[in-house]
């Protein structure tokens, strides 16, 4: 399985910091279920929150009918050309909303763009998300900004062994 550039960069850095003696294949260093890195998990949470906000906006604007919103999962797609992350929430919502998943995904994507436009320019999602596209049968495919990814790798390398450390609060 081919991984996205973001996934491979994160795995290579994770392997360099956490497993310096590791001599396995060049691909992914960890099982997919454990996540990529802290930054990947953070991006997934932020993307899921952005999708939830877009669904709320679409329902408020009556572009989507009111209905139950299932858990929003953001995962790496099976093929790198489909983007860095994908979301299948429209497929899960089709039964409760009674609409085709492509129509649901299109409404979410339109309101996702509006949500990003209203955020400040220094917001993480504004800097990180290059674009979102709707793909059959109703996926939202997210593409991350390559320039933003490069700055993340530079920040990880600059932090060295301190990357990911959280200072404990005493008192």
**Into which percent range does the helicity of residues fall?**
40-55%
What's the assembly state of these chains? single chain
**Biggest beta sheet summary:** 4 strands, antiparallel
Overall average pLDDT: 79
Total number of helical segments?
6
How many DSSP-defined strands?
4
Describe this protein's structure:
It contains 6 helices and 4 strands, in the order ααββαααββα. With 171 residues, it is of the alpha+beta class. α1 (5-18) packs parallel to α6 (146-159), α2 (38-60) crosses α4 (101-117) and α3 (89-97) packs across α4 (101-117). The longest helix is centred in the N-terminal third of the chain and has 23 residues, at 38-60. It starts with a helix and ends in a 12-residue tail after the last helix. It is elongated and about 50 Å long. The chain has a 4-stranded antiparallel beta sheet with strand order 1-2-4-3.
Please outline the helices and strands.
Layout: H1 5-18, H2 38-60, E1 74-75, E2 85-87, H3 89-97, H4 101-117, H5 124-128, E3 129-135, E4 139-144, H6 146-159
Which key terms come to mind for this protein?
alpha+beta; 6 helices; 4 strands; 171 residues; single chain; four-stranded antiparallel β-sheet
């Amino acid at each position: 399985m081919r991984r996205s550039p973001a996934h491979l960069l994160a795995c290579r850095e994770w392997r360099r910091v956490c497993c310096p003696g590791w001599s396995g294949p060049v691909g992914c260093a960890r099982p997919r279920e454990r996540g990529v890195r802290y930054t990947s998990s953070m991006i997934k949470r932020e993307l899921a929150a952005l999708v939830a906000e877009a669904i709320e906006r679409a329902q408020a604007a009556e572009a989507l009918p009111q209905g139950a919103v299932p858990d929003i999962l953001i995962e790496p797609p099976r093929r790198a050309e489909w983007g860095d992350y994908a979301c299948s929430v429209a497929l899960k919502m089709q039964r409760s909303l009674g609409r085709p998943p492509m129509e649901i995904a299109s409404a979410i994507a339109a309101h996702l763009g509006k949500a990003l436009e209203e955020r400040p320019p220094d917001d993480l999602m504004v800097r990180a998300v290059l674009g979102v596209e709707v793909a059959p049968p109703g996926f939202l495919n997210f593409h991350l900004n390559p320039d933003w990814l490069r700055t993340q790798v530079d920040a990880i390398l600059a932090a060295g062994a301190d990357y990911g450390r959280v200072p404990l609060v005493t008192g």
